[in-house]
Amino acid sequence: MSTENSLSGQKRCNEENINGGRSTTAQKVSKKNGDNSNLRDVIYKESHGYDINSPTNVPKRSDYLSWDDYFLAVAYLSAQRSKDPHPLKNSRDGACIVDAMGRIVGIGYDGFPRGCSDDCLPWALPNNKTSSIDVDDDKGEEKNDSLLPWLETRDPYLCHAEINAILNKCSTDVVGGRMFVPNFPSNECAKFIIQSGINEIIYVKDDDEDSDSSRASRILFEVAGVKMTKMKPTIPSIRIKFGSSTGSDTEKSTSTIGDNINEDEMEKYLGLMQREGGIDPWRQNRRG
Questions:
Q1: Global pTM?
Q2: What is the pLDDT of residue 141?
Q3: Which residues are tagged catalytic?
Q4: How far is CA 43 from CA 39, 198, 286, in A?
Q5: Which residues of the chain have pLDDT under 50?
Q6: What are phi and psi of 161, to 5 degrees?
Q7: Contacts of 244 (CB under 8 A, 6+ apart)
């Protein structure tokens, strides 16, 4: 008998919890509608007549960027600062770190360490062929299948975008943050991401999904509890046009010749002047 009473009491308790939950939901909806009504009244009174529900109000834009598209776009834009001449596959990467409040706290792109000239270190990929041509003695045909030595490629020297974004952070730390990248991080970057406390990596593609590096990254993220999210942007592309936001896409540029100077080319030739000719261009300018 006591068992039946206990089960009956438990059933009543469950029903009360369900009904209570429904009541709570209804109360929340009612409260929200009441808050909106109160807000409308306050704005109407303080603005001397502005009605937030009026059909004549000017609506907001409907084609604005979502937050995730915006953060991903910052990563892609940052990648344009990289001097890497290889645009294909997982080359020329960018990264954007966002904290728990949705603020950008770090950006980075692929490049050599600070103070290391872009003209002194190699940019060749590891799978680049050597320029020397050998001859196959058996067939008498030319062959060119030897790879460049590791130290003659970019890999030993390049600092990846993910690492640069963490090191360039403008906050105390990036614990609990999210990182947006075009390409899935390498295993070396995965270590830095985990150590920094970032808890989610959002990427668009993984060109080397079957590589040992990507497999190691996935293992590390799974073990450390870092969420991996493959993102599909809601828009295919973003066009950035400097100048008037209302100008047409066919508007001709009014920039002067000085505005068209290529910064990278200038750095390159100034560096050559210093190394090859022993000329300090800055000292020459000061004398002038």
A1: 0.68
A2: 55
A3: 162
A4: 6, 41, 61
A5: 18, 132-135, 247-261, 281-282, 284-288
A6: -60, -40
A7: 251
